[in-house]
Specification:
The chain is α+β, with helices and mostly antiparallel strands. It has two domains: about 100 residues, Helix Hairpins (Orthogonal Bundle), CATH 1.10.287; about 150 residues, Heat Shock Protein 90. About 55% of the residues lie in helices and about 20% in strands. It has a five-stranded mixed sheet. A two-stranded antiparallel ribbon has the order 1-3. Helix 5 packs antiparallel against helix 7. It is elongated and about 95 Å long.
């Protein structure tokens, strides 16, 4: 081996070491942030969920003592119960977000993980008359990932696509090898839905941002997706397609 070849080999090994250190540093930073959020969320749960439960019990009790023939009374009680349950769901969603813990990484076939995720939402796909088209590149390298957390990511993204097509439509899922170094695998999820406004696209991953707040959504779904992918050292991009719908692109590092 010539001196030049030896130098190139050492530079390549050094670059790989730097990438590994960056990934480890990113994981540690994310874990520390999540620890703080977890402590805050559980404190918030204790201070809010218990009083909500007491209020709901009180409303249930009062509902047995009022004139049920008065529609304004029964509707008001119904609104109160709905508001309490919505507030309780907000706290529950925040707790679920805060419970994201350290990763349990293992080599996995990203296309197979995608298939397993689709099984979990099969009922919603059939109910909303959504056709799924798979375009998987064969022979892709394995990706080092936490299968449970990446499944959570993929299910969330598919459900978002389903919700954007209330009258039915198509989801195209494509897996390919991303060119360049380090070796990475790209997964694209496209829908034929309504698309997103430019302002909504720009804020999609912000905490508590949602376009479905009237339906009880508090905007932690895509924030959770972004956090999980950040912990993996991966990337995610959201964009409107030229024709119709939205394309989500996920890129993860390959590795044994």
């Amino acid at each position: 081996m010539t001196g030049v070849d030896e130098r190139d080999k050492k530079i390549d090994e050094l670059n790989k070491t730097i990438e590994m250190l960056k990934f480890s540093q990113n994981q540690l930073a994310q874990a520390e942030k999540l620890k703080i959020i977890d402590e805050f969320a559980h404190g918030l749960s204790h201070e809010v969920k218990n009083p909500l439960a007491i209020i709901l019990q009180g409303v249930d009790y009062l509902s047995t003592k009022v004139n049920k023939d008065d529609p304004s009374v029964t509707s008001t009680i119904g609104y109160m119960k709905d508001a309490i349950k919505r507030a309780d769901k907000v706290i529950g969603d925040f707790l679920n977000f805060s419970s994201i813990s350290a990763l349990e990484l293992e080599p996995a076939d990203l296309s197979a993980v995608m298939d397993n995720s689709l099984v979990l939402v099969r009922h919603q796909l059939e109910t909303h008359r959504i056709e799924v088209v798979k375009e998987y590149q064969p022979g892709l390298p394995l990706v080092k990932l936490d299968q449970d957390k990446i499944t959570q990511v993929l299910v969330n993204l598919v459900l978002n696509a389903i919700q954007s097509m209330p009258e039915g439509g198509k989801i195209i899922i494509r897996s390919t090898l991303e060119q360049g170094q380090p070796i990475r695998v790209k997964l694209e999820i496209e829908d034929t839905g309504q698309g997103m406004a430019a302002d909504d696209l720009a804020r999609a991953f912000d905490f508590f941002f949602t376009t479905k707040r009237s339906k009880g959504n508090i905007g932690l779904g895509l924030s959770t997706v972004k956090t999980i992918l950040d912990m993996h050292g991966g990337e995610i991009k959201l964009e409107n397609k030229e024709s119709e719908g939205v394309k989500v692109t996920i890129i993860l590092n390959a590795g044994q």
